[in-house]
Amino acid sequence: MAEKFGAKSTADEVLSGINLKGKRFLITGASSGIGLETARSLVSHGASVVGAVRNLAKAEPATASVRDAASQGGSLELINLDLASLQSVHACADKLLADGQPFDAIIANAGVMATPFGRTIDGFEVQFGTNHLGHFALINQIEPLLVDNGRLVVLSSLSHRGADIDLDDPNFEQQAYDPWVAYSRSKTANSLFAVEFNRRHRDRGIRAASVMPGNSLTDLPRHFSPEDLQELLQTVDAAHRSGSAAERVERNSAGSRNVGLGSSRS
C-alpha cells in the first residue's frame, strides 16, 4: 500500500476508494466513541455491520449517523450484548450462531476504563471481566463464524505496559484496588488474547491483531475529574513529543496515571 497514514488520519481517509459491499463486520461497543465512528465509516463504504450494544433502546438513536451513512449499500443491525454478564455474552453468541451468517472481521472495541471498584454479575473485577473475559468468551464461541482469511482486531492500549496479569489475584481479593492497575491488566490480557488467537487460527488464514487506537477523546474517561483528564492529555502530548513509546504508570496520592486511552464504552 503506497498511501501513508499518520496519527491524524481519519477512518474515511483510510478507506478511501475501497468498496466493502458484501463484507460483514461485528463491532462491540458500536453505539459510541471509536466503535460508532468505525461502524459509520464501514457502512458508508458498503459494509454490513452488526453492532453489539449494551442498551438497545439507547443505541437506536445513538447510531442514527451510521444508518444515514448507508448510501453505498451498507447496513447496520444491532444486537444486545452486556460484556459484564456471561449469560448475556452466551445469549448473544447463541443468536449469532443460530443466524449462521459469517463475519469477515470481528472488532472487539467495547470497554471501560479506570472504574471505581466493582464486580461483574459473575463476580469478576469489572474491568478485567468486561474488557477481557467478556470478549474472550464471545469471540471463542463465535469463532466458527469468522471466515477463512478473516480478521480479529482487539482494541488494547499503551496501558498494557503498566501491569502484567495477576493470575493469583485477578479480582483484587488480596490487595488494595487500583483502577489503573486493573485497567492495565485488562489491556495486557487483550493483547495476549490476540496473540494466542492468531496462533491458534492462522492455519485458516485468520490473523488477529491487538491495536492501540490512539488518544481519542470519547466518553471512555468519564470517571475522570476535569483536572485528571487534563493531566492525562498533557502527559500523552509530552510522551508523543519526546518520541517515547509509552509512559510508565506514575504513582501519586490520587492513584496511578497512565497515558493509554483505549476503546469506547460497551
From TrEMBL:
Compositionally biased tracts (Polar residues): 253-266
Gene Ontology molecular functions: oxidoreductase activity
UniProt entry keywords in alphabetical sequence: Oxidoreductase
InterPro entries: NAD(P)-bd_dom_sf (IPR036291), SDR_fam (IPR002347)
Family: Belongs to the short-chain dehydrogenases/reductases (SDR) family.
PANTHER family on file: NAD(P)-BINDING ROSSMANN-FOLD SUPERFAMILY PROTEIN, RETINOL DEHYDROGENASE
Protein name: SDR family NAD(P)-dependent oxidoreductase
Species this protein is from: Symplocastrum torsivum CPER-KK1
Phylogenetic classification of the source organism: Bacteria, Bacillati, Cyanobacteriota, Cyanophyceae, Oscillatoriophycideae
